[in-house]
Amino acid sequence: MAHKAQDGAADTSGPSWHPVTKKKAYEQVIAQVEEQIVARRLRVGDRLPAERELATMLGVSRAGVREAMRTLEAQGVVSADVGTDGGTFVTTMSSEAITRILRLHVHLSHFSVPEVLEARIPLERRSARLAASQASEEDLAKMREVLDEMADPATPRDRFNELDTQFHVLVAAAGHNRLVTELTTAIRETMTGPIMHSFDDEEDWHARSASLCAGHEAIFAAIEKGDALQAAEAVESHIRLAYEQLHYHSN
Amino acid sequence: MAHKAQDGAADTSGPSWHPVTKKKAYEQVIAQVEEQIVARRLRVGDRLPAERELATMLGVSRAGVREAMRTLEAQGVVSADVGTDGGTFVTTMSSEAITRILRLHVHLSHFSVPEVLEARIPLERRSARLAASQASEEDLAKMREVLDEMADPATPRDRFNELDTQFHVLVAAAGHNRLVTELTTAIRETMTGPIMHSFDDEEDWHARSASLCAGHEAIFAAIEKGDALQAAEAVESHIRLAYEQLHYHSN
């Protein structure tokens, strides 16, 4: 409505130019599918109209519809079933898909270390708090196993880095909140490369790994005794210290 | 290594079967491009090898390379330039792309209200804290304008909902941390549909909107005076109350 009024007003003040939308046919098809999903008119498990039907309804070519479907499939939004009952269905997007996209995004957008840090700390504080009240015996046993392997001096640096990520993911998962877990995991995973780099450059590996292990043990102890606030504080100190070490080694 | 040992052990206990990886050619091309990005061997602005060259190097068809590039383009990872200097370049992924993917993901994964709440609260607490120390006069002026329009009883419910989202996005943006801003925005935007639904059902709209406005005013006041802790507390109370009202109206 506001837009219409503006156009009307522009009549007396000369022509009003708008940038041309160069949206391709397949992009428009994607946009419409997304609109239906967000409006909850299309839900997981629903079958999309057939290619020919969709092309007619949207006024685009069948090739445009096909391209849109392939893109949505690659993004994990829909999946195609073959066979007599075949068709294209709305799917549950996998955690891996979103982790992958977030990871790429963090790399390509050149978020600074403080930016990543400021997003990571509140999420991991929340993960740790949730874990302190929700962790099962099994969750704790898995964390213990990872910590024991990290404490072994024979563990090589790349394996140590893998286990480090695993520990943070286990804490997040122990909170039993999938969205917090995925965001935490994606952001932690973006740091794997830079962390590995600084591990490789580390001259006093013994001191560095001992310091990281001590941080993890403090988090684990707080979660084990169910102390939510202490778990949150422990995870924040650990992350801040780890970033200082990382920063020190990147310079 | 562990895997090899297992294979060896299986020799005496019969054949060992592994699921066949049905990764399509274009998926493998995508995976390789991503690998280079995460390893920082491909950076924003870099040109990818030509289609023919990439197809030869990776041992896939040119059609497979083309499909991969289209998918990566749709995801905002690369962009194609035409003309004599044309080619496919690595781009900075736009915020809209990630917000869009997160929004779809939250819808399609059926995250529960408590799951979204537990992810939203720590992010918005952090946003409010950052805003309290970083907000410029201009940031504050924009928030004030949105709040004034929300306070006007003539503002229709759908516009109120839009302004509500805008206020939370402005707070996040005033913290000047792009990653926190994007995650906050994406998660807030997933709630727009359910919130609108409950607004439409609201019988006492006057009381509901007044309560939401009071919450926003408290957040704004804390940010304006630079009180980080109070801003965080105000945002958490506001979100929890808003969800209680939302939940009440969804049942």
UniProtKB/TrEMBL annotation, chains A, B:
Alphabetic keyword roster: DNA-binding, Pyruvate, Transcription, Transcription regulation
Keyword Transcription regulation carried by entry: yes
Sequence segments annotated as region (Disordered): 1-21
Keyword Transcription: yes
Domain HTH gntR-type: 23-93
GO function terms (MF aspect): DNA binding; DNA-binding transcription factor activity
Entry protein name: Pyruvate dehydrogenase complex repressor
Organism expressing this protein natively: Dermatophilus congolensis
Underlying gene: pdhR
